[in-house]
């Protein structure tokens, strides 16, 4: 990652360390984050993953839910923010909480059956993070990534499709290309179903497997 990118990531990490208490507010979780988490848990259940990591886990709500709902053999929550991880550790000791960036995960090659990340992909060096997701997954492993991806008019979509560096919120087409470049096969990509009054969040779920 370039120095400016690392400086940006450091600034984001400092912000979320301070903002961690706000992140846990029930209305924010229910309206913004819960719909995509519901779909990710359903995808993990269908896949049968037993070794799972939640990347940019925040205060641990998603990883804790995965542990409670699916009872996997191994469940990890990974985040760069000390403030987020402190709250996650207070939530449960049945998840292993680890500090690290999405672009350099603290796992051996092929160590996991599934990697998930929701509402954080725009903070990553995206191609580097996807290559790292691919590295830590066993063959047949699942990557489930929820992103903020607002629809664009056709003319803007055509202009952005020629860019070699996707924006922080890439289009569905750019996401599929990045997944393919990292070695994944995209199995499904769809808009997250959510209540009418929250549809302005425009989140997109991409499900891909490592061959």
Sum up the structure in keywords.
211 residues, alpha/beta, seven-stranded mixed β-sheet, 7 strands, globular
Would you mind describing this structure in some detail?
The structure is a single chain. A 7-stranded mixed beta sheet has the order 3-2-1-4-5-7-6, sandwiched between helices. Helix 5 (126-136) links the parallel strand 4 (112-118) and strand 5 (137-148). Helix 1 (3-23) packs parallel to helix 4 and helix 2 packs across helix 3 (61-70). It has 7 helices and 7 strands; from the N terminus they run H-H-E-H-E-H-E-E-H-E-H-H-E-E. Helices cover 44% and strands 23% of the residues. Mean pLDDT is 82; it is low at 1-9, 11-20 and 153-167. By secondary structure, the chain is an alpha/beta fold. The chain has helices at 3-23, 26-47, 61-70, 82-91, 126-136, 154-161, 172-181, and strands at residues 51-55, 74-79, 96-99, 112-118, 137-148, 185-191, 203-209.
What does the secondary structure layout of this molecule look like, with pairings?
Elements: H1 3-23, H2 26-47, E1 51-55, H3 61-70, E2 74-79, H4 82-91, E3 96-99, E4 112-118, H5 126-136, E5 137-148, H6 154-161, H7 172-181, E6 185-191, E7 203-209
Parallel strand pairs: 1-2, 1-4, 2-3, 4-5
Antiparallel strand pairs: 5-7, 6-7
Q: How much of the polypeptide forms β-strand, as a percent range?
A: 15-25%
Q: What is the gyration radius calculated from CA atoms?
A: 16 Å
Mean pLDDT figure: 82
Main sheet? 7 strands, mixed
Number of strands: 7
What sequence of helices (H) and strands (E) makes up the elements? HHEHEHEEHEHHEE
Content-based structural category: alpha/beta
User: What is the end-to-end distance?
Assistant: 26 Å
């Amino acid at each position: 990652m370039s120095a400016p990118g690392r400086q940006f990531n450091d600034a984001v990490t400092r912000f979320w360390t301070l903002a961690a208490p706000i992140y846990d507010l029930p209305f924010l979780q229910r309206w913004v984050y819960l719909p995509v988490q519901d779909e990710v848990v359903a995808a993990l259940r269908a896949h049968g993953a037993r070794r799972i990591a939640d990347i940019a886990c925040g205060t641990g709500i998603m990883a804790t839910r995965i542990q409670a709902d699916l009872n996997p053999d191994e469940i990890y929550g990974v985040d760069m923010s000390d403030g987020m991880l402190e709250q996650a550790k207070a939530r449960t000791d049945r998840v292993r909480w680890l500090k690290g960036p999405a672009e350099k995960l603290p796992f051996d090659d092929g160590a996991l059956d599934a990697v998930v990340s929701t509402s954080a992909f725009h903070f990553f060096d995206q191609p580097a993070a996807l290559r790292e997701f691919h590295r830590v997954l066993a063959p047949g492993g699942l990557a489930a990534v929820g992103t903020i991806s607002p629809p664009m008019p056709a003319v803007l979509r055509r202009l952005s499709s020629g860019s070699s560096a996707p924006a922080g919120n890439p289009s569905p087409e750019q996401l599929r290309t990045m997944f393919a470049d990292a070695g994944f096969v995209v199995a499904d990509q769809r808009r997250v179903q959510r209540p009418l009054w929250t549809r302005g969040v425009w989140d997109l779920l991409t499900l891909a497997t490592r061959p």
